[in-house]
Amino acid sequence: MQPYKTLPVAQKIRFCVRIANEIRMHLRRERKAPLTLSMQEPIQTSKDGSHLTVLDVVPDDFLLDEDCECREESSRLRTLVQQLTGRERQVILLRYGLSGQPPLTQQQVAQLLGISRSYVSRIEKAAVQELRAQLEPTR
Asked: Angle at the Cα of 87 (from 85 to 93), degrees rounded to 5?
C-alpha cells in the first residue's frame, strides 16, 4: 500500500470515510453489548499484590444482623463479634454497620482507623472467616 501522503485526494477521502464507518460500527457493537460487571472485578492492584475490587469501594447497604433468620442468631453473632480482637471488631462494626451507623467502604474504614485499605481488607476477611467458622456448627 502506498504511504498516505502520496495518495490522490479522492483516495484519501475514501480512506477517511472507511475509517469513520469502522469507528461507527465499533461504537454500535459496543452499545448493543450488555454491560456486565462482576463485584469481584479488580479495579486496582497495590504494590503488595492485593486487589481493590468493585465490592471494596461500593458501600454495602446489607446489614449483617438483619439477615439473620432469628433473634437468637443475631444475638449469637453480636456475642461472637464482641469476642473478636479490638481491630477486627472495629473493622466489622464499621464495614457492616452493626453499631447503628451506615456501613462504610473499606477505604472509609482505612481513613478512619489510619491504616491502609489492603490492611482493612485482610482484617475483614480474617474476621469474617472466624465468624463463619464459629457460626457454622450451630446451624
From this structure: 95
Residue 61 · residue 108 · CB < 8 Å:
no
Higher pLDDT, 120 or 72: 120
Q: Determine whether 92 is exposed, middle or buried from the number of CB atoms within 10 Å of its CB (0-12, 13-18, 19+).
A: buried
- The verdict on pTM exceeding 0.85 is no
Q: Do 77 and 65 form a contact (C-beta atoms < 8 A)?
A: yes
- Cβ-contact 93, 128 below 8 angstroms: no
Q: Residue 27: exposed, middle, or buried by beta-carbon count in 10 A (0-12, 13-18, 19+)?
A: exposed
